[in-house]
Amino acid sequence: MFKEKPWLKFYEPHVPEHIDYPKITLPEALEETVRRHPDFPAMIFMNNKISYREHNAAVNRFAAALQELGVKKGDRVAIYLPNCPQFPIAYYAILCIGGVVVPCNPVYTAREMKHQLNDSGAEIIITLSSMYPIIKQIRADTKLRHVVVAKIKTYFPPLTKLLFTLLLEKKKGHKLDISGDANTYWFTDLMAKASEKPRPIENNWDDTAVLMYTGGTTGVSKGAQLTHKNILVNAYQCKVWLNAKEAEDISMTALPLYHSYAMTTCMNLGTLVASTLLLIPDPRNLEDVLKNITKHKPTHYPGVPAMYVAISNHPDLSKYDVSSIKACISGAAPLPVEVQQRFQELTGARLVEGYGLSEATPVTHSNPVFGENRIGTIGLPWPDTEVKIVDADTGKKVLGVGEVGELCIRGPQVMNGYWNKPTETANTLRSDPEGGDPWLYTGDLASMDEDGYFQIVDRKKDMILGAGGYNIYPVEIDKLLYEHPKVLEAAAVGVPVPGKGERVKIYIVLKQGETATKEEFIDFCKENLAPYKVPKFVEFRDELPKTLVGKVLRRVLLEEELKKQAEQ
Questions:
Q1: For residue 462, is pLDDT > 80?
Q2: What is the C-alpha separation between 149 and 386, in angstroms, rounded?
Q3: Residue 296's domain is classified under what CATH number?
Q4: What is the C-alpha radius of gyration for the chain, rounded to an integer number of angstroms?
């Protein structure tokens, strides 16, 4: 553990070493925000504004409706929705009555949904009409007792709702008849019949609040048990770090709310400081993103590198006004230097890199938003967050400044463990011989400079064992490729070569209108990398496989390569 904490001297003046957290739950924080700012917009969706008073009334009604369906403290309730008002309403309603939220990726297939529902033991799910067929397909193979179906058009403005009903509802797969399906209800019908408020339930800080499933990039997903304390603390840390002011900001919410990143930095932070969520249902619809920025003037835009790449390279960016954006924190994947610099030049916004993982609710590090931003680093540990770097082989030897090893974290935002997975929990949360809370072993390789700024070198699992036994870090190659003027996106992967171990293969997406040869990129790498790091193979693609959050799925690229090799 870095007992000296050199990073403290680089904290901005408003950031303390320790924070005095209010010992409340997020539903209680929402009630307090409504008391102070009842008419401030909680959400903007399809140009429709929903006030905090209206939002809280819907939360209370839906909480009562869930109780009438039999939801008790500790019951898991799944949310299978894109970014729409029903997501925050359902999330806070479930927490309000002591339920456990199980957020589900809205692009999950039937197989993936069945695993998550069965693993969590969820008996109720809230989904969207267009996604209901997937739930209907797997329902008999799960423990689901009740299904609640929301309509995307419910919170549209009147004219937009009418046009959608006439022209798009059926065409887009939203037209649905559930009348013959047992224990299946419309979201709005349940709300209309429910009491105004639920029966009061006592929530404790140490109660599980969210099962946040991880593993979309590494394999079978596991449910990280996040407590009421975890989710309140991390949102509060975010409030302090950003120096967020009450009832001032509009938060661009293009990140999907099912993911811990948006859950904390958009939804839960918004509840604490009465900011407005500008909800974007499909983050890949760049035109919708830019139109909403131009019209509604968001000030805060948490995102991932893929989002900033897309905006920076949009051919008609000059037609949109993105000058309202003041602060952006990039997470979920390494932020290439070229992407960071170009986005800041084009928008005038301050874009800094941070770091987190679902097991830590998720944020643990960030560059100061308006202090010293060291490009290429994930910045400084947040208040109350302890950090150490250990050797990657044994995980026991604590390393010093400048040495690369596995990043370990301890703090009030760290999960209780994985749901029903004691072995995985023991491997990830390890006790400290000197006492205190266990350390979260992140699986990420990192180093710290003498001032306390951290740099992620790569995922431990993604490290390539090159010729001669040298370690090769794919992120280093990715970052170099982003410096090439023709590259839109890039990813490096270690692929097996019979009799020779692993060799580097790079996947390139070229910018629109560009052409290039494989030799051009190999020569570029030869000029900038040690010989053992130079790629042996190059493949051009129209796109790279990604999670909905925008993280490149190296695992999928490798699986595709292995399949091709097996077929040869």
A1: no
A2: 43
A3: 3.40.50.12780
A4: 23
